[in-house]
Amino acid sequence: LERDIAELDQLIDEILLSSRLDALTALEHVEDVDLLALAAEEAARFEHAAASGTPVVIKGDARLLRRLIRNLIENAERHGAPPIEIEVEPAAKGANLRVLDHGPGVAAADRERVFEPFFRTSVAGETRPGAGLGLALVRQIARRHGGNVRAISDVGGRSGFVVSL
User: Fold this and answer.
1) What are 6-58's pLDDT values in tens digits?
2) 105-129 per-position pLDDT tens digit
3) What is the pLDDT of residue 130?
4) 121 neighbors 110 (Cβ within 8 angstroms)
């Protein structure tokens, strides 16, 4: 019962955050955020995750960016295979954040659909666990920061997501 209540509480939190992001015209809190430091903090919460790369400071909402990173790591834990590698690098207009694992990745046909609210992939007729909001929130948060996210696969035997901010 406690686990079910915690899952329902998290689902309600995600629905409320999604609605709040839809209603925003601009970020409420903007500050300088060291993306690599934030990624390292989140990676430390997970047994099989590690962050590396170049420190990049961007303007954004640290709380939302933390949520973006956490959702991507949790997605990799749930659907991928360890180790989970978070990479940060500077880009022409900001930063790129990659969250990669050694799992099968997202099927080519589902690479856009995984960002739809409540979409859940299925493998061999078996529905995957999760509410289907984590990646939708990742896309909303990335877009609120002037960026976007896409699924990638076969990056040296790894698959995952790239967020451009």
Assistant:
1) 777 777 777 777 677 777 777 778 899 999 999 999 999 999 999 999 999 99
2) 888 888 888 888 877 765 544 455 5
3) 54
4) yes
Give the pLDDT score at 129.
52
Q: Rounded to two decimals, what is the model's pTM?
A: 0.84
Write out the chain in H/E/C secondary structure: CHHHHHHHHHHHHHHHHHHHHHHCCCCCCCEEEEHHHHHHHHHCCCCCEEEEECCCEEEECHHHHHHHHHHHHHHHHHHCCCCEEEEEEEECCEEEEEEEECCCCCCHHHCCHHHCCCCCCEECCEECCCCCCHHHHHHHHHHHCCCEEEEECCCCCCEEEEEEC
d(CA 26, CA 149): 19
- Could you tell me which of 56, 55, 54, 58 has the C-alpha nearest to residue 32? 58
Q: How does 85-114 read in b/e, with b if 16+ C-beta sit within 10 Å?
A: bbbbeeeeebbbbbbbbbbebbeeebeeeb
CA 53 to chain centre: 17
